[in-house]
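Posted in: Structural Biology > Protein-Ligand Complexes

Title: Requesting predicted complex, tryptophan in pocket

I'd be grateful if someone could produce the 3D structure tokens for the following input. Sequence and ligand are given below.
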Amino acid sequence: MSTSISPKPISFSGIQSSGIPSIGNYIGAFKPFTAYPQTHKAYFCVVDHHAITVRQEPKDLFENSYGVAAWYLAAGLNPHECTLFIQSHVKEHTELGWILNTFTQMGELERMTQFKDKAARHKENVNAGLFGYPVLMAADILLYNTQEVPVGDDQIQHIELARNIATRFNNIYGDTFVMPKGVIPKSGARVKDLQEPTRKMSKSQPGPGTILLNESPAEAAKKIKRAQTDSLGVIAYDTENQPGIANLLEILGGLTNRTPQAVAQEFEGQQYGALKGAVAEAVVFALEPLQAEYTRLMSDKAELHRILAKGADDAREVAAQTVRKVKEKMGYVLA
Ligand code: TRP
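-- Reply #1 --
Done. Output follows.
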């Protein structure tokens, strides 16, 4: 009764508008997301309310919110085939987020590894919003009767929390929320930092180990060529003993729709330089058209805004129904 019948499974994912996305975001998210509308009723969100849990310059938040939308589109999402919108344009996100706070225990949030990491990195601003971040994320997901949430493996813990919150609510008030599950897109590699290949490539920690999507392709190629490798001299996919090489294989595989193992096979017996050359070339080949399309989209913000406003209108319709149902069940006096 609570599940809206849709011929395709419903998917939802979000990307924060904090900073410029990296090539890791492209390979792990934007690019694999483009396949979703064929098989899913797909929602893609620019999560600006999440971005502000770390202090943002107003002009950066403004540019990056349009920017993330433009990267989604430049990567190949067709806004007529999915729902692309900005989180803050649909007020139901914060409203449900507030309500779900009361179904979330402090202890659960204290266990979130992303909170612990970010709190350690931003000691001067460990705000309540950063603490409650996963609750808003649960609201994002649960508003749309979401069945699948394509994310990187670092987000699985947050989705488990969303499931726990949904279960708790459903147990008290009866079947209300659809149970979402986290899925790691098959083609979406987890790109690591080029200089410290044991940690995720992060857009918030730019430097020689990170390639941002707006960087000059020539500079990006240089960073690939300077990527840390090892002294084993063997090209094989071994994340444990050769994290640097494994990362280069992931990047090339991600960009050319192959598994890193298949790429390793192709380069078996070759020198690291040959692999780096091929990765650099693939990165340049991907960045050039992507950046051209991004620049075109960003040069017409009015058009971009129209696309996002249409997305928000569609999203709001479903979100409002969910919030209404939740409030009714809880005994709120409806407006
Ligand atoms: N926390 C996610 C990340 O950092 C972003 C996000 C916010 C999200 N809300 C979401 C992802 C809902 C999937 C679904 O990557």
